[in-house]
Specification:
4-stranded antiparallel sheet
């Protein structure tokens, strides 16, 4: 029996912007789909976060991943089917990348950049959670401090109105005499 014919492919996968909240989950989902289709990943990187030309499933922005991989040619239709069934993926496009030299593909390696971005996003999320908790406690402290000050009796509006009225009347009388 002959071995299946393999080819070098370039895949562009589009996730909704909400995937940036948990980037690692999106990456794992995409890698799982590729592994099920017997693809060997050569290069995996986050390409960009962009505004979409038109709304897709209620999403106006998306996150693109660029993947170079080797796969049996017969498995590409299975890859397309799995991507279309995925609820996390918005769109995908796979083309043959035989025309690209391996130096170009290897130069586009973005795994380290992606890992760094995931770490920074996780750190930012934990910092925001800590800041939000301290802000809430500060607001509660202010409420406790200002509550006794609000217990003073308000000055009635009637007491202020007569004081202003004679002043206006006096000014009007002076203007009439002149």
């Amino acid at each position: 029996m002959s071995t299946p014919r393999t080819g070098l492919y370039e895949g562009m996968f589009l996730f909704p912007q909400s995937a940036t909240a948990n980037l690692q989950e999106a990456i794992d989902h995409l890698k799982e789909i590729l592994e099920k289709c017997e693809a060997t990943i050569i290069n995996f990187r986050k390409w960009d976060e962009r505004r979409l030309a038109y709304e897709i499933d209620g999403n106006k922005r998306g996150v693109y991943f660029l993947v170079y991989f080797n796969s049996p040619t017969s498995a590409i239709s299975e890859l397309e089917r799995r991507c279309n069934q995925s609820e996390q993926l918005l769109r995908m496009m796979v083309t043959r990348a035989e025309h690209l030299p391996t130096e170009v593909i290897e130069a586009n390696e973005g795994a380290e950049e992606l890992a760094t971005e995931i770490e920074l996003r996780d750190k930012k999320m934990t910092d925001k959670a800590g800041t939000a908790a301290s802000t809430v406690s500060r607001k509660e402290d202010k409420v406790v401090e200002t509550a006794p000050a609000e217990e003073k009796a308000p000055i009635p509006a009637e007491a202020e109105a007569p004081a202003e009225a004679p002043t206006e009347v006096a000014e009007t009388e002076e203007a009439a005499e002149a």
